[in-house]
Structure prediction request, 129 residues.
Amino acid sequence: MRILQETASTGTGYDFAQSRDGRVVNNLVVFERGTVSTDVNIGGDTDPGSFVFENNWFYATDDPGSSAPTLPGTESGTVAGTDPLLRADGTLDPSSGAIGAGLSGVDDVGDRLGACWADPPSVGSHEGS
Prediction:
């Protein structure tokens, strides 16, 4: 994950605010702890403390006990170390705990395949069934 400021004020007459107030919600992050050296890459001219991380699920396939990331800002509702039971195609197995575990009211109309989100939605990019 990266928090970056791609463009900064350069005296050209335009003022760019710091990258700030991001909201990261209902994401499913499956990774190998052995290949991740930094959980969040934070660039200059950013305000990482203003970011909010809500209801995200983290799972390190090679070391589930080390799944919890170090995040800046405010964090709530994190699930770490529980296998989300992803199928080979990236969808959730019907017995996954991520199904229906999402936070309702997030401004997203559908999953990556175009299916409507349930209420509450699943965590990740696919609505469970």
